[in-house]
Automatic annotation (TrEMBL):
It comes from the Bacteria. PROSITE patterns: THIOREDOXIN_1, THIOREDOXIN_2. Residues 6-156 form the Thioredoxin domain. Residues 1-19 form the signal peptide. The lineage of its organism: Bacteria, Pseudomonadati, Bacteroidota, Cytophagia, Cytophagales. GO terms for molecular function: antioxidant activity; oxidoreductase activity. InterPro entries: AhpC/TSA, Thioredoxin-like_sf, Thioredoxin_CS, Thioredoxin_domain, Thioredoxin_ResA/DsbE_sf. This is TlpA family protein disulfide reductase. Keywords: Redox-active center, Signal.
Amino acid sequence: MKKIVAFLLLSASYCSVQAQTATVVKFDRIEKIIKTQTDEVQVINFWATWCAPCVKELPLFEKLGAETPGVKVTLVNLDFADKIEKVNAFMNRKSIKSETVLLDEIDYNTWIDKVDASWQGAIPATLIVNTRTGRRKFVERELADGELQQLIASVQ
């Protein structure tokens, strides 16, 4: 009986520390994040659950968001919107805490250039925006440990 009670208590405490869930959005929500004047540096990462390099770098964004004041991390998932439950289950398994949106825009050609004119469409891709200075950096590849901090410093 004691083991059952201990298991139930452990299960209840685990459930209260769950990861975020993704919200399905249209591109105008992403565009608002990119353009809204704020004191925080915006770090916007485009990724998918099926993209191995994307999944590999997710812990870098989680660490950045948790440990860096003045930086706001938004993860933009590019799986299909009807796969929201799969995305949320993935986020739960990986303990993703950063704000995550699932972009419901299947015609990539209508919005990719609005993120950055140099973007060829590959992921992972990361946009770093400082609306106070007007500086921004865009990277269309997997980032290595320490690179995010360097990119953020370059837009200060």
